[in-house]
Design brief:
This protein is α+β, with helices and mostly antiparallel strands and 258 residues long. The protein is 38% helix and 26% strand. The chain has helices at residues 2-19, 52-64, 76-85, 126-129, 150-155, 167-175, 186-196, 228-239, 242-257, and strands spanning 23-24, 27-35, 37-38, 42-45, 48-50, 68-74, 90-94, 103-105, 111-112, 115-120, 143-146, 161-164, 181-185, 202-206, 216-222. The strands form four sheets. It has a five-stranded mixed β-sheet with strand order 12-11-13-10-14. Strands 7, 8, 9 and 15 form a four-stranded antiparallel β-sheet that branches. Strands 1-2-6 form a three-stranded mixed β-sheet. Residues 225-252 form a coiled coil.
Length: 258
């Protein structure tokens, strides 16, 4: 009888342990996911996550909060699904209405996007494209983007969009005349062009006034993550510190100088 009680006790302990957050040396593990091909912000380098956003989150979670961090990169649409399902705890992206359905976002933005468009230098309507300044100016042009691009899905929904599997595929669509333009972040577009090659075949037009406010990146916490409310509170508290903001700016400046 005593043996049965002991067995029941240990089974109960094991069941409870399975319900608790993952812990390493007394620290909860925060699972972060990033886009795998979004340089210089996030990308896979020698099977390891790298990039400005990755480094900022590593500093914020590991050094400022003192928590263990697990970082992985995926195709962006899959990464977002992991956050939605609670299989990942945080991501770092533009806050959109769709993403607010499954994630809570920190109050302070950590990075502001510099919008620009890319067009083929051989596009017959290049003179018109170079005059684009605001959203309404996009009327009549075909636009492409990559699957999972929440900003485009929310802000360009009134225009026909050609969705491609990845950012490189979107560049290829513009290069081959399948779409007139793609819109993105200047540092990211520059890095994508470096990877794609043929920089002289494209024209980049900065769009500082495309939308009333510049898109902002924030950390989003999965509403299904264990301890989500506490993690969000901890992140918000850390981001209010002047030394944390200074370090995040230093990381951003260093990556932009590369």
């Amino acid at each position: 009888m005593l043996r049965r009680h002991r067995l029941g006790y240990w089974l109960c302990c094991i069941s409870l342990a399975m319900l608790l957050p993952v812990v390493v040396v007394g620290k909860e593990v925060v699972r972060a996911v990033f886009m795998e091909d979004f340089p210089p912000l996030s990308f896979t380098d020698r099977q390891k996550a790298n990039g400005m956003l990755v480094e900022q989150v590593e500093y914020l979670v590991e050094q400022s909060l003192g928590m263990q961090l697990e970082v992985k990169t995926y195709p962006w649409k899959r990464a977002q699904r992991l956050v939605e399902a609670g299989e990942a705890d945080i991501f770092y992206t533009v806050e959109t209405e769709a993403r607010r359905q499954y994630a809570w976002f920190v109050k302070r933005p950590m990075y502001r996007i510099q919008l620009a468009l890319l067009a083929s230098a051989h596009n017959k309507r290049l003179d018109e494209i170079e005059q684009i300044r605001h959203l309404q100016d996009l009327e009549g042009f075909s636009i492409t983007s990559y699957r999972g691009d929440g900003w485009s899905a929310q802000n360009l929904q009134q225009f026909p969009l050609l969705w491609m599997n990845g950012a490189q595929d979107a560049l290829r669509a513009v290069d081959r005349g399948l779409a007139d333009i793609c819109i993105g972040n200047i540092p990211t577009l520059t890095a994508q062009l470096r990877t794609y090659g043929g920089r002289d075949r494209f024209v980049m037009v900065p769009l500082p006034d495309l939308t009333p406010t510049r898109p902002e990146f924030r950390i989003g916490v999965s509403q299904r993550a264990l301890g989500a409310s506490q993690l969000l509170e901890d992140l918000n508290r850390a981001l209010e510190k002047a030394e944390v903001q200074q370090k995040l700016r230093e990381i951003e400046e260093r990556w932009h100088e590369k």
